[in-house]
Amino acid sequence: MKKQACITGGTKGIGKAVAFALGQAGYDLLLTYASDDDAAGKVCKELQQEFPVEVRVLRADITDKQSVDVIYQYLTAHHLRLDAVVFNAGLTCRDSFETVRMDDWERVFFGNVHFPVFLLQRIAGLLNGGGSVVFTGSLMGVHPHSVSLAYGVTKSAVHALVKNLVKFLSPYEIRVNGVAPGFVDTEWQKGKPADIRRNIENKIALNRFCDPAELAEAYRMLIENRYINGEIVVVDGGYSYK
Ligand SMILES: NC(=O)c1ccc[n+]([C@@H]2O[C@H](COP(=O)([O-])OP(=O)(O)OC[C@H]3O[C@@H](n4cnc5c(N)ncnc54)[C@H](OP(=O)(O)O)[C@@H]3O)[C@@H](O)[C@H]2O)c1
Prior knowledge:
The protein is an alpha/beta fold. The chain has a single domain (4-182, 212-241), classed as Rossmann fold. The chain has eight helices and seven strands. NADP nicotinamide-adenine-dinucleotide phosphate (NAP) is lined by residues 9, 11-15, 32-36, 39, 61-63, 88-91, 111, 136, 138, 181, 183-184, 186-189.
């Protein structure tokens, strides 16, 4: 029987690359996104041209509580059960420690931590035994040097969440892992000025940003391997060793 995966933030960047990796592995896909309908329509077409899989896209902003219901209701209305869930969509707030507002701090926490917890709570019963959940963490959650305090702290929380969830998902026979990417060439990074990008590259042992497709292989491995559970796989090109 065909397998089904849901990827939040699945229409661009890392999520899109994971969608291609899972499409190649034969998964039907539900990709959520925030607001860019054109990009969502385009990725849907590209995937269906390349692989014999069914692809659905759904607007569901992770900063909005109602998106938990939107996703749950979409899954049940279409009689979809899931074999893989990738909690990938995330956000940041680059205000300094001195100026960050509590509302913005809460928004980052809601999107990066609260939203996946309560979405998972709602859809756990729709996951097939033997299935897998993968979170997108960050190198910034391992080495605390993010320019955004809220981002670094929430990504550390995502890593802790992965480990704490293992025992709560084991009755469902679901494994849970995380990927902590270093610097990946997505829109998120492409906007950075050239000198800042060069500074970053100089700190990476491989001297370059990660291609999203290279990173996506780690997600596919975590989803397909039957024994890895509770791990955070760091994919940073050797950032910490230079
Ligand atoms: N790029 C890196 O270097 C890097 C490193 C470490 C961790 N990460 C993490 O990787 C994840 C994806 O980042 P990326 O670089 O792939 O970003 P990206 O290229 O900007 O892609 C963002 C994707 O997420 C969706 N999205 C953004 N905000 C959302 C929201 N509020 N609600 C629902 N969906 C939303 C976007 O939908 P729309 O197009 O509709 O906005 C799009 O599909 C994030 O969790 C980020 O923290 C990235």
